[in-house]
């Protein structure tokens, strides 16, 4: 490893430690400060330094010993803080993560280390926001999150990606079918989460915008089901569906440009015209909404798997047919 690369990796480790430490120093204040910018910077540099030493001697023990040292200091600090009534492991765990990011920097995992460092600082700064969000959660919300995690992180990876069926009908892939189920249910779940965060009207609109980047069909199916159960939100849901299709036109044009300039030149006039019509209709829905229809209304169920599974089966039949 040349010196420039080595110094740049130590520099990133130092920057990550300073970022996390500055957040802790700002949030905790002088009187409650367990570890600040300098301490976190040193912890990150210690991680990078002992990782380098481990490479030099071809042994993991320098890094392990330093990690145990930091862990012991963290445990001591926690016990001392607990004696005066300050109970919490957030800063202590952040110190261990910062040590790990320093080691990752040295080993060349630059993007991962930077992402972990920024994510750590952001999570630490969102203490009040996270508490407020948790206070607004119900048991139903927790169950919905767990169910969505199961169908996405457990069921989807287990399904085979190969296609089935006799030629030329061997187009049915269980993973692709279930991925459509995940899309449909995920759009509804995203809408529910955004409603919790920013309110029904803005949450539904944001879901339409973001959902259009992935699947405008999924947005349409998910929100059509919602409109039947929440008629008072029909106009907002129609706006979200229109937004998703408008975004879809932009997405298709970008994809066509990537495939080839000639294809994009042939497609941009009709796509641009369709997108403009969609945008005008979105503006019409937004401006013509009656003030009386702006009351705060929320979805009754955060996650519904049944309609998504039905469409997944329909999608499979379309593929086979």
Please, could you describe this protein's structure?
The protein has 321 residues and is mainly α. The chain is 79% helix and 0% strand. It folds into 2 domains: 3-132, no CATH class; 137-320, no CATH class. The protein is built from 13 helices and no strands. The model is unreliable at 291-298 (pLDDT under 50).
Spatial extent as radius of gyration: 26 Å
What's the N-to-C terminus distance?
A: 58 Å
**Average predicted local confidence, pLDDT:** 79
Write down how many β-strands occur, each being a DSSP E stretch of 2 or more residues.
0
What is the domain total for the residues?
2
Order of helices and strands: HHHHHHHHHHHHH
Largest sheet: none
What is the beta-strand fraction?
under 5%
Counted by DSSP, the helix tally is 13
Q: Classify the secondary structure makeup into a structural class.
A: mainly alpha
Taking pLDDT < 50 over at least 5 consecutive residues as the criterion, the unreliable ranges are: 291-298
Helix content: over 70%
Give the overall shape.
Answer: globular
Topology:
Layout: H1 3-28, H2 37-57, H3 61-83, H4 90-106, H5 110-125, H6 127-135, H7 139-158, H8 174-198, H9 200-214, H10 216-229, H11 234-259, H12 261-287, H13 306-320
Helix pairs in contact: 1-2, 1-4, 1-5, 2-3, 2-4, 3-4, 4-5, 7-8, 8-9, 8-10, 8-13, 9-10, 9-11, 10-11, 11-12
């Amino acid at each position: 490893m040349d010196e420039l690369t080595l110094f740049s990796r130590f520099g990133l480790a130092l920057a990550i430690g300073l970022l996390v430490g500055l957040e802790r120093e700002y949030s905790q204040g002088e009187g409650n400060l367990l570890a600040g910018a300098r301490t976190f910077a040193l912890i990150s540099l210690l991680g990078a330094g002992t990782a380098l030493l481990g490479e030099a001697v071809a042994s993991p023990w320098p890094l392990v010993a330093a990690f145990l040292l930091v862990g012991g200091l963290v445990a001591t600090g926690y016990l001392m803080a607990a004696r005066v009534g300050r109970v919490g492991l957030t800063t202590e765990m952040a110190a261990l993560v910062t040590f790990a990011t320093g080691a990752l920097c040295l080993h060349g995992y630059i993007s991962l280390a930077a992402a972990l460092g920024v994510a750590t600082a952001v999570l630490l700064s969102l203490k009040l926001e996270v508490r407020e969000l948790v206070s607004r959660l119900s048991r139903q919300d927790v169950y919905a999150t767990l169910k969505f995690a199961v169908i996405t992180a457990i069921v989807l990876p287990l399904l085979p990606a190969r296609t089935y069926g006799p030629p030329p009908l061997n187009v049915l892939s269980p993973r692709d079918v279930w991925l459509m189920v995940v899309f449909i249910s995920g759009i509804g779940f995203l809408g529910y989460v955004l409603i919790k965060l920013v309110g029904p009207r803005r949450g539904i609109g944001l879901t339409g915008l973001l959902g259009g980047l992935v699947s405008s069909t999924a947005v349409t199916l998910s929100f059509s089901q919602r409109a039947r159960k929440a008629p008072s939100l029909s106009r907002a849901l129609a706006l979200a569906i229109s937004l998703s299709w408008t975004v879809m036109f932009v997405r298709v044009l970008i994809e066509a440009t990537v495939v080839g300039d000639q294809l994009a030149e042939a497609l941009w006039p009709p796509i641009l015209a369709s997108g403009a019509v969609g945008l005008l209709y979105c503006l019409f829905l937004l401006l013509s909404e009656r003030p009386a229809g702006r009351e705060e209304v929320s979805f009754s169920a955060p996650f519904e798997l049944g309609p998504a599974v039905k469409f997944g089966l329909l999608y499979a039949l379309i593929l086979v047919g």
